[in-house]
Amino acid sequence: MSADQELAPNAGPRVIINRQVVEDTWTRVLPAEDGSITVPASGKVIVPYRYWLEHRDELAGRELGVCFAPDDEPESLPVDANVFGVIAVDFPAFTDGRGFSIGRLLRERQGYTGELRAVGDVFKDTLNYLWRCGFDAFAVRADKDIDDALRGLDDFTEFYQSSVQQPTPLFRRREDGATQG
Fold first, then answer.
1. Which Pfam families does the entry mention (predicted)?
2. Among 15, 77, 168, 177, which is least packed, fewest CB within 10 Å?
């Protein structure tokens, strides 16, 4: 980020989008302890996917995103995924990898081309793997350094396996002469 793009010290929450640290313009709506959900009357909001399913008509016309929980099924999405300005996927714990599959399914099977954001237990060591599954935005855990986490996207420069970002595995790229090795 250049000096003229630096965020003010008291700026709101920051996220990584397309390899840049920026101010978060979305509000993620989380359930209260009793399970109730209160959606702000205005502004860009990310609501839980199940809440959206139950309140689609009420939320129509809003600048809206949804957040998939680890046990939500992207295949159950009753509309084109691209109607959402952002789709978030929750990673409630480092050990829960279901969100990686959800991200890949949204990109490859649902054809989602918008911002795909990882939220929850997201930190430097996971960013590169998330990116390979199609995530391009990351809400890094509050107790982690977001600038340090950003560097995690470049931890590896070459991959053996195919991914959303590189659909051709290394052995095929070598056969085609597309990489040295």
1. DUF934
2. 177
* Residue 125 pLDDT: 85
Instruction: At 111, list the tokens.
Output: 């054809």
**How far apart (Å, rounded) are the C-alpha atoms in residues 39 and 36?**
10
Q: How confident is the model at residue 171, as a pLDDT? A: 58
Q: Would you mind telling me the total number of residues written for the chain in this entry?
A: 181
Contact 98, 71 (CB under 8 A): yes
User: Residue 73 — φ and ψ, nearest 5°?
Assistant: -110, 115
The predicted structure's pLDDT at residue 10: 47
- Measured distance CA(62)–CA(164) in Å, rounded: 29
Q: Which residues does residue 15 pair with via DSSP β-bridges, in sequence order?
A: 22
**Tokens 């959303």, residue located:** 164
The answer to whether the beta carbons of residues 74 and 110 sit under 8 Å apart is yes
Q: Give Cα 68 distance to the centre of its chain.
A: 10
Closest C-alpha to 89, from 64, 57, 54, 119: 119
Task: Give 5's contacts (C-beta < 8 A, 6+ positions apart).
Answer: none
Single pTM value for the model: 0.81
